[in-house]
Amino acid sequence: MGIQIDNYRRILKELGSSVxxxxxxxxxxxxxxxxxxxxxxxxFGENYxxxxxxxxxxxxxxxxxxxxxxxxxxxxxxxxxxxxxxxxVDSLKLLKEINKQAAKTGKPxxxxxxxxxxxxxxxxxxxxxxxxxxLKTVRTEGMDHVRICGxxxxxxxxxxxxxxxxxxxxxxxxxxxxxxxxxxxNHFQQLSMGMSxxxxxxxxxxxxxxxxxxxxxxxxxxx
Length: 223
Ligand SMILES: *Cc1c(COP(=O)(O)O)cnc(C)c1O
What we know:
Elements: H1 5-15, E1 20-24, H2 30-38, E2 43-46, H3 49-55, E3 64-67, H4 76-79, E4 83-89, H5 92-105, E5 109-116, H6 128-141, E6 146-154, H7 161-178, E7 190-192, H8 199-204, E8 209-212, H9 214-217
Parallel strand pairs: 1-2, 1-8, 2-3, 3-4, 4-5, 5-6, 6-7
Residues 24, 26, 47, 68, 154, 195-197, 211-214 line the site of pyridoxal-5'-phosphate (PLP).
């Protein structure tokens, strides 16, 4: 099917310059990523460690790779050399492991904390209490090798606009209220929310980072 270049151009226009588009390329071949790269895209998102590690070396080095999947602690050290931003940090244990592995490389790693906003039980993420707890721990323990750059969330799998708006709004309010809890350094700036089906609503509700796959690359085979 190949990349949807018209969609790409249209979405870029809708975003303006204040929102970052992360092109989600999971399950898609390197040739499709290359084609979107040639059209100017630099931020790409992958969900699976092995897939990211296979693709990244075959593609230009100035691509910014976003890890948007569920990350297991034992895989952290594999992706650190490749990844620019880890979106799905959903436990203190994972954050501590990232901090520990990053300390060995000497380079701080940018992370987003994933918050559970959807109705579905299965989606990963912290609840509000856990989120505040994690932010507090980062400050009191001085984790120098992780930079908490903001929050990430996934809305319910639903076409009910009012439900989606409610969930995005809830995440946005949490983002605003957590700013003061975030560690010093002013890194807490990103709100990663919005996918192919709901990105316009997400922008209206204050998203700074969209993760869009199927609109750019076509539908995926089930994995
Ligand atoms: C797959 C995925 C996306 C992109 O989904 P589309 O509906 O194809 O745009 C965004 N975020 C996460 C976390 C994903 O796993």
